[in-house]
Amino acid sequence: MAIDKVREYLKQWNADGRIREFQVSSATVELAAQALNCEGSRIAKTLSFETADGCILVVAAGDAKIDNAKYKARFGTKAKMIPAAEVEEKIGHAVGGVCPFAVNEGVKIYLDESLKRFHTVFPACGSSNSAIELTMEELETYSGTGEWVDVCKGWGMDEKSALGQAM
Fold first, then answer.
1. What pTM, to 2 d.p., does this model score?
2. Using CA atoms, how far apart are residues 79 and 162, in angstroms rounded to an integer?
3. Which CATH superfamily is domain 2-166 in?
4. Closest residue by Cα to residue 139 from 32, 26, 43
5. What is the pLDDT of residues 43-57, one digit of tens each?
6. Do 6 and 99 meet the contact criterion of CB atoms below 8 Å apart?
7. CA distances for 13 relative to 10, 54, 74, 142, angstroms
8. Which residue(s) pair with 51 in the sheet?
9. What pLDDT band is residue 2 in, cutting at 50, 70 and 90?
10. Using CA atoms, how far apart are residues 41 and 95, in angstroms rounded to an integer?
C-alpha cells in the first residue's frame, strides 16, 4: 500500500509516527477537514499535472484553485491534470491519497504560495484516509522541494474580496 511506502519514507525524519489514519474517508478537502476537525483551507491538496517535461505535483491550500494564466506563465503550458485512471501509475499514489511524499522518480513537486499563510497544514499520506500535520519547513523538507510557485487563485485576499472591503 502507498501509505506504507509513505510511512517508510517519513521514517528518515522520525515523522512516520505522526501519520493519522481515520475510520472515515479523507479523500477530498471537505472530507479531510471533517476528519481533522479543521478549516478546509488548511488541507494541503496535491494536484497532479502533465507537462512536456513530465509529471508534476502542485501542493496548494484547500481553498485555492489553479489560475490558468499563472500556471501557463510559470510552466509554459496549459494546466492539464492527469486523468484519474492514470494518476497512480504516473505519480505513485491513487487519487484521494496523492501526496508529495515517496512519489515516483522524476515527478517534480512544487508548493503553492497559498499555503504560506498557515503555521501548519495537513497533506495526505498515500491513502484516502490519512494525513499528517506539518509546518511549512517540514513540508519543504519532507517533499524534497524548496520550490514555491504562485499558480493559484481564490484564496485569502484575492482582488474581488479586496475590492469588496474597500467599499
1. 0.92
2. 26
3. YbaK/aminoacyl-tRNA synthetase-associated domain (3.90.960.10)
4. 43
5. 999 999 999 999 999
6. yes
7. 6, 28, 31, 8
8. 54
9. confident
10. 19
